[in-house]
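Slack export, channel: ligand-projects

TW: morning all. Re-posting the request from yesterday since it got buried. We need the structure predicted with the small molecule present, not the apo form. The ligand is magnesium ion; the SMILES is in the block with the sequence. No rush, but it would help planning for next week.
GE: picking it up
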Amino acid sequence: MTSGMPLLELRGISKSFGGVAALTDVDFTLRAGEIHGLVGENGAGKSTMMKIIAGVHTEYQGTMTLAGQSVRLRSARDAKSIGIGMVHQELSIVRDLSVAENVLLGMQPVNRFGMIDYATMYRVAGEQLKRLGIDVDPKMPIGALPLGLQQLVEIARVLFSGARIIILDEPTSALSPPEVEKLFAILRRVRSEGTSLVFISHFLDDILRISDTVTIFRNGRRIETAPVPQIDKGWIIERMIGAGHEELEESYTGEIHLHSKPDAPVVMTTSGLSVEGVFDDVSLQVRGGEVLGIYGFMGSGQLELARALFGKLQVERGSISIGGVTAKLNNTTAARRAGMAFVPESRRSMLFHMEPVYKNISISILQEISKLWLRPSAERTIANKHVKTLQIRPPLVDRPLGTLSGGNQQKVALAKWLTHLPKVLVLSEPTRGMDVGAKDDVLKIVKSLREQGIGVVVVSTEPETVLSLADRILVMKRGKITREFAGEVVSKDRLLAVA
Ligand SMILES: Nc1ncnc2c1ncn2[C@@H]1O[C@H](COP(=O)(O)OP(=O)(O)O)[C@@H](O)[C@H]1O
Ligand SMILES: [Mg+2]
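GE: finished. pasting the full token output, ligand included:
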């Protein structure tokens, strides 16, 4: 159903953050009663564009019209008042409030004394959630629910707000397949009532299933818009990643042949690792020269497992041995001494943004190596070498790290481990938030580390990440390893099917 009249039209939108362009001359049209799928690699500008529509970003160039009327929003409240609602990528629920209060946030029913009428609130919220097929107790604190349900409640809130244009920014990343089905049923119903929706997702199968129209963004530009019956996954991927990224493209579309290395020596073994309510009885082995991928939905425990392997999270039961020696990873220093290295998902927690690039590269070894390393000239020499091999851009080691793009910061985070090879390197969400070029670079770095014989563990909630990097894949579900893929053919569909 793409025949609806243009409802919302944006023309020539440009937006930059601190001199860096996030959007360049983008046109975007949303029609009445359509579901408009919006796709693009991380950093392509999707969220920024939608935040302009939702009144979050008010400084930009270009024009916006709603039903032919020019509008210039001054705030998200403004947007709400003309019927535009957005569910943000980052949840904005209030964890301590009940489900009902979250659903009706800002619209709670009051009695004649002006007090919140709890009985009515629970009843109304309960009825509305039920209508959407969301089965939760409206009195529960929302923070106690699984992430997927929290997300559905947040979506429910925007749906109840009476918005006629609803933007969903990656709403399914935390949802299980049955929850996604539930959401899609809701979206179709809302659409049939004449509401227009923008649906952002990196799950291309979902996009093709739910959308009437698809728009592709790349590097802050709109590349193309087309009605769904005319396009397929390959068509989208080509436009999303541009030319010359065959390996990445394969991880999006194709079947991956895993090449296990059963003969290589085991460098790390865990047995029965458990943390109550987080992960349970995790036993695995990593071989030298192997990349082990651990995949699971958000909340499956794999990100926490990664932290435990670097002494950032204390295990309650189980043991770890590294290079054949039992290791107690009570803290990160112990983990590092035992031969572990870790690059966490939020790069910000590890790197020093105000410090120059060269310091960030050498910082992890300062405490272990002689004073020679403290000489800035020596540090620079080492750093320059890595900047070159990793193609860190711009190649200026004296620049503060914070001035580099996310992808290049990630390369710096990896570079410092190259100066001092660990036995096992654990990477958590190594390519999240990166453009294609940076992803390719990370791919190369990981491969070169593998060639040098270290064991690499990659944990991620993104199937593409493990598919493009791993030689062997474990799937985690509710804290347990439920499946191993080794020496066989695997695809994104097969991964999702068992997660
Ligand atoms: N608040 C912000 N401050 C600075 N840079 C930002 C901000 N929001 C987004 N960006 C930058 O704008 C670009 C587009 O980001 P975004 O719109 O979030 O992409 P997407 O949603 O497609 O992943 C990225 O380079 C990102 O780093
Ligand atoms: Mg985004």
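GE: first-pass observations. The chain has 17 helices and 22 strands. Residues 46-47, 89, 169 surround magnesium ion (ligand 2) (CB under 6 Å).
TW: perfect, thank you
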